[in-house]
From TrEMBL:
One of its GO terms (molecular function) is symporter activity. InterPro entries: MFS_2 (IPR039672), MFS_trans_sf (IPR036259). PANTHER family: MAJOR FACILITATOR SUPERFAMILY (MFS) PROFILE DOMAIN-CONTAINING PROTEIN, MAJOR FACILITATOR SUPERFAMILY DOMAIN-CONTAINING PROTEIN. One of its GO terms (biological process) is carbohydrate transport. This is Major facilitator superfamily (MFS) profile domain-containing protein. The chain crosses the membrane at residues 24-47, 53-74, 95-116, 122-147, 159-179. One of its GO terms (cellular component) is plasma membrane.
Amino acid sequence: MENSTSEKLSLAPPKFNTKQRIHWGLASFGGALISGTYGSLLSIFYVDYLGLVGPYAYLVVIMSIAYAVWNALNDPLFGFYSDRSKSKKGRRIPFMRYTAPFLGLFFILVWFAPISPDKIAVFWWMLVTTFLYDTGYTIVFLIYSALPPELTEDEQERNKLSIFASFFSLIGMILGFLIPDFFRKEQGIFPLQMA
């Protein structure tokens, strides 16, 4: 018994090589890319392409307020739940593993709204898919951000993981905000202008 305790105490925290840090950062890149794309393209898509304008513009405002409330509630809710998870497969990884495919699906579904003269149906599609997308995003990336202290006790290693995640996140966010500009009606990437 005494030997096993001293062996545990003598184990050094794991060190991550550059390849592992890049892989860690790529997850952050993906999250920032879809988040940036979602944030900058959602209004363009539902207003310019699906016609939630004029007398229906209030629906976009209602969705934005409902989304903000849900987003404020779901982070602590899922954080609380994952902190208390007793899964045999670990506290965090099962959440990411089983939610990530749905996050991808819900992100795609946001953009497959019905092209319908019934703008209320379009609004409900936007509201439901946005809530599902945000729930998936929250679970995956809340867990992702909570993992470094569980991966290593070495503060320098956690800092290195954080640097790689921040670097790749910045690239993903920039691309996430630039790519949607290609989809703007009568604008494109070069005549960027403030309206």
